[in-house]
């Protein structure tokens, strides 16, 4: 059983405030000042998870990713570097909401018995954090939580989220045939850089890429990474001010660029040059450029998925191993034109799942090579064990086939297969553009996005909005979906859906239609409908 005195003493240092918590799209996320007890209890959960898995290493990342500076959160990482298993999210939520130490102990004991956790097993947990100032004290709360069950812990300090996922997998696979690499940031840089150099060898280097790091952890870490690339890639970093925490994700970063459909404020763009943005913990990436007529053009997660799928299909054909099936996973936010392109031009199967990398990752495992990206730039490519085996055993019967097979092998190394990773995705895009000698405009010509708009609506209680069908339909509040459908019908190529965010206290409204004015009107009409349904009088009605 759990040492109750120890738990009481530690838990008293991290008292639960009067609030209700939910493990959301990517873990717990809210105002940092509310998180102390939640993070403490997440430490207990991580230790239980490790014990349940026979001492396998579990990762905890303290970050609120794309959220504003005053927020924070925690994402839990399972042994192979994937997100925490879905069925454990309810336990995380229940532990965080236990009202007293007694309730907390009761819930831990109920988990121990229902999940058959052997408390005598070891617990191993690693953790890291992004650059948010609140991270420091939250890490201390996590460490206290880990003491409750005597976990062995390693603090990796400040890291990007994908680096912690990578390290977790390396630690759990060390010494096995699936060994993933050296479990350090340095090992991560070396692995990615070596693979990238193979992929661009002998090709003419592209002009410098301008990289907006959202004033987050991606900036110092990408600076650490650059020397490993030697001169294989030129990158000019902007928005790297991590010493002014309030600037994090402010008017910059992947979320800003994607939702505002414009470059970071203050960035002067030159026509036909390449620009990219990370989010606050460097697991999302979007590209963009300015066209000759000065219009802003976004190359988001859908465009990256299309580019990656196109390239991989070509490579497996060129290597003579086109028995390998490629599939793409998207969410309802995927632009309708991207889905058409994937299905009709590339002839690949496309599945649509709920928001959250965890859902996409799971679905992508069904393909030999599963490309998954959210439109917001969060995604990666997964190679199944059998696909990897084929790729590694293919010599090719002529030099062209051998080169393609070698590229595929390097590609599987440059891609962080644990989770969406902005560094690794950037190298993937740069590989393809370099190999093809493409400008961003050529990449963009694969298909033309339907105009789209994403609106955030502040409501009284976002939990009343319940969705089905990969979040494309609302079933509650009753009747609202009929009202939405009636509006959508009036718009050419109209599509719209409404879902509560799992990372921010808002309801999101997505709309696309044939033209920009129609799209905006559709988005604002649906947004207004949602606002009127459940307004608390504080937010503004979308218009
Ligand atoms: C997280 C998740 C993403 C999700 C995003 C927005 O991203 O990892 O899968 O798309 O939140 O989710 P929601 O619409 O539910 O707020 P990040 O980069 O913030 O961790």
UniProtKB/TrEMBL annotation:
Record Pfam families: AMG1_II, AMG1_III, PGM_PMM_I, PGM_PMM_IV
Domain Phosphoacetylglucosamine mutase AMG1: 189-286, 300-438
Domain Alpha-D-phosphohexomutase C-terminal: 454-524
SUPFAM superfamilies given in the database record: Phosphoglucomutase, C-terminal domain (SSF55957), Phosphoglucomutase, first 3 domains (SSF53738)
Pathway(s): Nucleotide-sugar biosynthesis; UDP-N-acetyl-alpha-D-glucosamine biosynthesis; N-acetyl-alpha-D-glucosamine 1-phosphate from alpha-D-glucosamine 6-phosphate (route I): step 2/2
Entry's Gene Ontology BP terms: carbohydrate metabolic process; cell wall organization; UDP-N-acetylglucosamine biosynthetic process
Cofactor(s) needed by this chain: Mg(2+)
Amino-acid biosynthesis keyword on record: no
Reaction equation(s) it catalyzes: N-acetyl-alpha-D-glucosamine 1-phosphate = N-acetyl-D-glucosamine 6-phosphate
Location of the active site: 65
Gene3D superfamilies according to UniProt: Alpha-D-Glucose-1,6-Bisphosphate, subunit A, domain 3, Alpha-D-phosphohexomutase, C-terminal domain
Binding site for Mg(2+): 65, 279, 281, 283
Positions of the Alpha-D-phosphohexomutase alpha/beta/alpha domain: 58-98, 105-175
Binding-site list for substrate: 374-376, 499-503, 508
Entry similarity comment: Belongs to the phosphohexose mutase family.
PANTHER family, sorted: PHOSPHOACETYLGLUCOSAMINE MUTASE
Function: Catalyzes the conversion of GlcNAc-6-P into GlcNAc-1-P during the synthesis of uridine diphosphate/UDP-GlcNAc, which is a biosynthetic precursor of chitin and also supplies the amino sugars for N-linked oligosaccharides of glycoproteins.
Protein name as it appears in the record: Phosphoacetylglucosamine mutase
Organism, scientific name: Dissophora globulifera
Gene: PCM1
